[in-house]
Amino acid sequence: MNKLYTSACAPMLVVGAVVSVWGPQQSAAQPPAAHNPGERKAAGAQPEVDAAEEARTLYALGVLISRNLEDFQLTPEEFERVQSGLNDGFNHRAKQVDLAVDTPKVQALRRVRMARTMDKRLKDGQAFVEKAAALPGAIKTPSGLVMVPIKPGKGASPTADDAVLVRYQGKLVDGTVFDAAVGEPVKFALNAVVPCWSEALPLMKIGEKRRIVCPPNLAYGLRGAPPKIVSQSTLDFEVELVAISPAAAASPSAQAPATAAAPGQAAQTPTQ
Question: pTM of the entire structure?
């Protein structure tokens, strides 16, 4: 189970980013391997190559390279132009490009396109929040968090230092489910999650189920939680509060709703 702790992974740089595909670099000098007289290979022997697996790996290489283009939000016509440059570069015939001059232009174009995309994402997210706030019974807090009742509860509410057991589902504004725990409830500490959860759960009672809409500044903000939650994403949760554990019973490794963070990633301080 992943965790609803804030996490981030720096995006690959566009220029020179393909180098990251190759993984860690080996040092120039490596100590010689211990020689075992009983293990000798025929001179020039090569491992057998699985043609289908190699083809799949080469296809994966293309996918990895394509990830570096996402920030540009290319049109089909623009992508054709990029393909033309890739083809000419591969065949060493890119005569019309001076990388010393054009590399800063590529970086500037990336910044412009990213800013445009971010602006649209923020506007779409704000419209999503306002639409949720207009639903019957919805509550919008001063921070911008929106809560919509689904099922009432009764009894106690957790404090900010308690741990809770919940069932939940998390979606992006386009309806994509990025994580869920709808069967066995999961346990996590309210002082170790993103701000929208830390604010919303203490306002719920045991047995209650609410829709919780989190603007970016109360979720993962600029850093996002790649690859599923991009920068400045508005998040849409349905959360059922099943039980409360007193603060003293909260485990440092308490499980939390998953995001795109790596499994087992350590908790970090929530970032707004």
Answer: 0.68
> Could you tell me the two tokens for 48?
């057998």
- 236, two tokens: 């849409």
Which residue did the predictor score with more confidence, 159 or 262?
159
Share the mean pLDDT of the chain: 80
Which helix (H) or strand (E) segment holds residue 214: the answer is strand 209-214
pLDDT tier, 60 (very low <50, low <70, confident <90, very high otherwise): very high
CATH number for 136-249: choose from 3.30.930.10, 3.30.420.200, 3.40.1160.10, 3.10.50.40: 3.10.50.40
Q: Which residues pair with 243 in a beta bridge?
A: 165
Burial class (CB in 10 A: 0-12, 13-18, 19+), 254: buried
Cβ neighbour number for residue 120 with a 10 Å cutoff: 11
Contact 207, 185 (CB under 8 A): no
Give me the percent of the chain exceeding a pLDDT of 90.
62
